[in-house]
Amino acid sequence: MKKLKKPLFVVFLCGLICLIGCANRTVSDSKPKLSLAKHFNGLFYLGAAVNENTILGMDSKSKKIINTQFNTITPENSLKWMFIQPEPNKFNFKAADKYVEMGLKNDMYIVGHALVWHSQLADFMQNIDNPKQMQQHFENHIQTLVSRFKGKIDAWDVVNEAFEEDGTLRQSVFYNNLGEAYIEKAFKLAHKMDPEANLIYNDYNVYKPEKRAGILNMVKQFIANGTKINGVGVQAHWDLKSPSLEVIEEIILDIHAAGVSVSFTELDISVLPSPWEMVGAEVSQNFSKFEGDPAMDPYPNGLPEAVQDQLAKRYQDIFNLFVKHSDKIERVTFWGVMDKHSWLNDWPIKGRTNYPLLFDRKYKPKTAYKRLLELKTN
Ligand code: 9MR
Fold first, then answer.
1. How many whole angstroms from 161 Cα to the centroid of ligand 1?
2. Residue 165 bears catalytic tag
3. CATH 3.40.366.10 fits 37-374, yes or no
4. 235 Cβ below 6 A of ligand 1
5. Per-residue pLDDT tens for 54-75?
6. Which of 19, 242, 268, 280 has the fewest beta carbons closer than 10 A?
7. List 161, 305, 330, 374, catalytic entry
């Protein structure tokens, strides 16, 4: 499914069919469409992160939701360095192969996440202090993964989370060994191994102006010096209020103005109180002092209707914006399928009950899902 996102004639044809179909229809007999991806078809890909249980066939309910509701998938963990190359040059492709097979079988737009990331790295990579050695592992990893899935994985998160909040580069083990050129090297190598693949830079807290400026300066440099980059992935781990719709719109406009597409790659909306001054998705922050604090976990037995509605409204508002700017947006991917499996139950405070996704703990569609299916797409 490596393709033009929305060929004009398809948009035209859909319009024509709708015109004919809608002519005889009253509002009351219009049934909601049954697939979210179909609802937003022609505007952007719509997807979900797939966890390893689902990939390995141990969660048929999630799999069914993915296959019916979405047209793009991202592996939540299975392609990360620590799992796929736990020891030098010892690759474990079991889950990755199954993941790609699942995507191909269902004609999905398949995302590879992530080639170069300082987190969830294999142990042997963590403390390398030898540029030559680093260069060798770095090249081997990118070459092996991208060539294995050439023509199958449609888009790679080539580098993940390389920037600090102030827009400077993170002093990761990659940076410390290879210098700032490592990001460009990664993109060039990925391009060489699969010239057709879409190449993405992915990060969180892109709503912060300084961080966004750092990222977009890099994007502009790449474009100026001929390094292929297709898009910026905005992780979108958001909450009921932040970032504001105005800021989300700015993110879309700024990335588009820099010359690449926007993808919302890890969308989820936390409904729980967040420990102070802490926002975004930096996994290393420790808030263990809040564990077991009922004030920080207010809905252990179910989400009150009012909050359910707030969540639905928030998703509705966000997607209205996505529809408005669909010409700039390539893909929207939820970070998971159903609430029980979301990483947000354990981050930033362990053991809470969060409700960030479109399907509830019994795999039933939530109000937010229904509202998205009713959203006007033209
Ligand atoms: O959802 C992932 C979770 O299962 C892992 O434990 C966690 C470890 O860092 O990574 C989560 O996914 C992250 C993604 O790969 C990159 N952006 C932030 C996501 C949430 O931490």
1. 11
2. no
3. no
4. yes
5. 999 999 999 999 999 999 999 9
6. 19
7. 161
